[in-house]
Write a structure and sequence with these properties.
Blueprint: H1 4-10, E1 30-34, H2 41-56, E2 62-66, H3 74-79, E3 85-89, H4 90-98, E4 110-114, E5 120-127, H5 135-142, E6 147-150, H6 156-167, H7 172-177, E7 181-184, H8 187-193, E8 201-206, H9 211-219, E9 222-224, H10 229-237, E10 242-246, E11 258-263, E12 265-270, H11 275-286, H12 289-295, H13 310-313, H14 319-328
Parallel strand pairs: 1-2, 1-3, 6-7
Antiparallel strand pairs: 3-12, 4-12, 5-8, 5-9, 5-11, 10-11
Helix pairs in contact: 2-11, 8-9, 11-14
Length: 332
């Protein structure tokens, strides 16, 4: 759980950034766009969105698609005004709003512009396992002394991954008792550590076509483990995930369907953002859905007509976004 002290720490991450939030979308703007590390799908998303935002924002505006942030910390960066736009997960939106799971206190200042961009799957990718190998089975019998590469703090992949591993009897303490270890390292280092045997498995929250997992699967003999039914139920009922199926052959070595916890991506901003600016950003994202799909295959299923729905975003809509959806006739 993120404590108040850690929230204050997160608030300093972008302390050196220029943080002008204008009163109107007609004034030039300087926006920090929080996503996640290079090698992840979110960085591709943010970079693509930033490109077409630069075309519609006033002359002199800047959109910095930074590779910092993460699924848990991004709402805190918005709350602290250290980023003005960010990507989040529908599931963590719920956690943040309620002040549960990863958050000690409710985060009530974030608003949604558009959601349902994709489907994200909570996975554990591992070496020395046959397709269909169970998650608990792997850590108890197949590779009990496995070394687990986990992203640094702030990543929902690490936070949620540890929740799922704990439900599968592979908590940090249990893994260490069997001779294994949790190793904290950036995603790029995790990717490079599979061929050398430094890392045997990694929990990640991924899309189809995820760059880092694609590279890992192309260069190593790995597969995506199957969480047991009781593990899936824990992730659904206790932690608010949806459940879905990652189709066979989404990645090399994954020759069977895998049922997994799922969520989707939301674009979030502060309630303090002007209505005009929120409207402009929402319009640009929705009306460039084709460019998003061309940038990343996981965005091909984005349906803008549903991107405003409460069950899709798990946040209040920003009034500027609400205005746009009403104009389109999707929100009555």
């Amino acid at each position: 759980m993120i404590s108040k002290s850690k929230r204050l720490f997160a608030a300093t991450i972008f302390a050196g950034a220029s943080l002008l939030t204008p009163a109107s979308a007609q004034e030039e703007v300087d926006l920090t766009f929080a996503s996640f590390s290079v090698g992840g799908s979110w960085y591709v998303y943010a970079s693509t969105i930033a490109e077409f935002l630069r075309d519609v924002l006033p002359k002199g505006s800047n959109v910095d698609a930074t590779p910092l942030g993460g699924g848990v910390v991004n709402s805190l960066l918005i709350d602290a005004d250290k980023a003005q736009i960010a990507l989040s997960h529908a599931m963590t939106n719920k956690w943040a709003t309620n002040g549960t799971v990863a958050y000690e206190a409710p985060v009530t200042t974030t608003r949604a512009l558009v959601g349902g961009l994709d489907t994200y799957y909570l996975t554990v990718t591992a070496v020395d396992a046959e397709p269909g190998t169970g998650l608990r089975e792997y850590f108890e019998t197949v590779n009990p002394d496995a070394k687990i590469g986990a992203n640094p703090g702030g990543s929902v992949a690490t936070f949620a991954g540890k929740l799922m591993l704990t439900a599968a009897n592979a908590s940090e303490e249990e893994v260490e008792e069997r001779g294994g270890a949790y190793l904290s390292m950036p995603l790029g280092t995790i990717k490079d550590s599979f061929p050398t045997g430094v890392v045997d498995a990694t929990p990640q929250i991924i899309t189809r076509g995820h760059p880092a997992i694609t590279e890992i699967s192309e260069n190593n003999s790995v597969t995506i483990l199957q969480p047991e039914d009781d593990v899936l139920e824990t992730m659904r009922s206790t932690y608010g995930f949806d459940l879905g199926t990652l189709p066979a052959d989404s990645f090399r070595g994954q020759s069977v369907d895998v049922k997994l916890p799922t969520t989707s991506t939301t674009v979030i901003v502060s309630e303090e953002m002007s209505d005009d600016l929120a409207y402009t950003i929402t319009k640009a994202i929705v009306e460039n859905a084709d460019k998003l799909a061309a940038a990343h295959q996981a965005l091909a299923g984005f349906d803008p007509t549903k991107g405003w729905q409460p069950e899709v975003v798990n946040l209040p809509l920003h009034p500027g976004a609400e205005k746009y959806y009403r104009e389109r006739g999707w929100l009555k």
